[in-house]
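Problem 3 from the worked examples.
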Amino acid sequence: MRFIHTAIAAALVLVAVSSCKSQYEVLLASNDADAKYAAAMEYFQNKKFSRAAQLFESLSVLTNGTERDDTVQYYWGLSNYRNKDFYTAESNFAGFVKRFPLSPFAPDAQFYRLDCLYRATYRWELDQNPTRACLASIMEYEREHPGDAAHLEACRLMKEDLQDRLDRKDFEAGKQYYRMEDYLAAHVKLRNVLKNNSENHYREDVLYYTAMSSYHYARLSVKAKQKERYLTFQDDYLNFIGEYPESKYRSELDGLYRKVQSVQNF
């Protein structure tokens, strides 16, 4: 008897689920814009974003050119965004901004597009073209919405993170030459890092490896050229301690500088 009751209960649940699904599918195929709009909003409010997105997408055909057009398009994108389908959401919001630049939803749509672009960027070790594209979009947004306090702080944090990735990518490229013991190439690359961006987040490390590269390049040079090349190290050392007198690298560089002075009689 207990087994029969359990089987009946399970069957009722399956029927209920099947009925609920069929009602959704019928609604999805319906041309009743009002019913579909109300259901889509209800699904969105209940955080059933996948179903909401499908309904808004279907509804967008029915509301095209109507007063609901921008609302449906915006919530279609927002549903995909909340469903963590950031690739589709970015496309939604990009299209929205082009079609409805004067909509009250436009600033938020533009910001959410930025966030989608940000989420599509890669770690510093990988291709940084998406990072550069996202940075350019963020700066465009900041120029267009200078008073948008609600989003500008988030933009600042995204910019800081993205710039850090670019800075580290450049620094690590120079450091890689150092690890390979190609000290001349390392020195040139590291100097160019700061030439191209003097505010690199890794400036202290860049200057340290610049000095270390010039030291080892001079140390490994033929005797006749060592003195001249140690002068380059001396310049790099003085530049470093001038900027970072309390650096964790100071003791090591001081030791090398004293060693060079004793050998070369600077």
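Problem 4, a separate protein:
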Amino acid sequence: MSTVKKFCFVNRKAPYGTIYALESLEVVLISAAFEQDVSLAFMDDGVYQIAKGQSTEEIGMKNFSPTYTALGDYEVTKIYVEKESLEARGLTIDDLMDLKYEDEDDDWAEKDSIRVVSSEELAKIMGEQDVILSF
């Protein structure tokens, strides 16, 4: 018997320079493949993980950011970005990747996965989770 748990993966680190961002993304995809209720939260420098136009040529690392576009295929549809972290870095939602999913309950309409929320709203969302993993 399988029990679905609510997992929230909190991403606080810049996308490159450490393995945290890539490891988080891999664990998210694995959790989603096992049909867990997965959400992601991006805060602090973690907001850069889903920024548009990433280029890693100068640092000699593989750019894994296109993988985020597959999240909807894994039914990862709840991506929360902390508003205060965006503002502190001079970013807006327009600076982030266009992450979407197809809603089967709405005739497969394409919908936005990213929700910009205040730190207060994010704290409430995190309080509703069974498991929180911070990267």
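Solution to problem 4. The chain has three helices and seven strands. The helical segments are 20-33, 83-88, 119-127.
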